Amino acid sequence: MKIFVGNVDGADTTPEELAALFAPYGTVMSCAVMKQFAFVHMRENAGALRAIEALHGHELRPGRALVVEMSRPRPLNTWKIFVGNVSAACTSQELRSLFERRGRVIECDVVKGDVKIFIQCCSSSLLLLSPGSWTTRLFTWRRKQMPKPQSRSSTAKK
């Protein structure tokens, strides 16, 4: 059974550490740690359910309560899109409304100028974006609205 573990500090948590945490509840087949979440595969369903019940809310690190639940597969025809170099002025709600023109947006997160979008639509070809498309124009317009940082050479001359 595949278990989702959220609120994990991927920079500070190892697969071995998670395997040791889950091992008292059953056989751990594998662990994969990402930036803020992880997946633990356990052999027995009963052990996995005991681990979920026991470890949900457990603080692996002080102040970081784990979210432990059964992993749910993404819906069919769901596409994961990464968009880079997005202006800090763009909100996730603006981006969500733009991508909803192409399909149902399941998740839209903006993190440090990059966007992660899970969208459900009938074909990946509907998601193809080309220069001059509505998204490119929005991101370009938003970047133009932001004040340009001064270069070091121009500030040093003053």
What does this structure look like?
The strands form three sheets. This protein has a four-stranded antiparallel β-sheet, covered by helices on one side. A hairpin with a 3-residue loop joins strand 2 and strand 3. It contains five helices and nine strands. It folds into two domains: 2-70, RRM (RNA recognition motif) domain (Alpha-Beta Plaits, 2-Layer Sandwich), CATH 3.30.70; 78-120, Alpha-Beta Plaits, CATH 3.30.70.330. By secondary structure, it is of the alpha+beta class. The radius of gyration is 21 Å and the shape is elongated. The longest helix is centred in the last third of the chain and has 12 residues, at 134-145. Pfam families: RRM_1. This is RNA-binding protein 14.
CATH topology of the largest domain: Alpha-Beta Plaits
User: For this structure, what is the CATH class of the largest domain?
Assistant: Alpha Beta
Topology as H/E string? Answer: EHEEHEEEEHEEHH
Q: Oligomeric status of the shown chains?
A: single chain
Q: What's the arrangement of strands in the largest beta sheet?
A: 2-3-1-6
N-C termini distance: 64 Å
Mean pLDDT: 75
Count of DSSP strands: 9
Q: Could you name the ranges where pLDDT drops below 50 across 5 or more consecutive residues?
A: 124-132, 134-151
Break the fold down into its secondary structure elements and pairings.
Blueprint: E1 2-6, H1 15-22, E2 28-33, E3 37-42, H2 45-55, E4 59-61, E5 64-65, E6 67-70, E7 78-83, H3 92-99, E8 104-111, E9 114-120, H4 134-145, H5 152-157
Antiparallel strand pairs: 1-3, 1-6, 2-3, 4-5, 7-9, 8-9
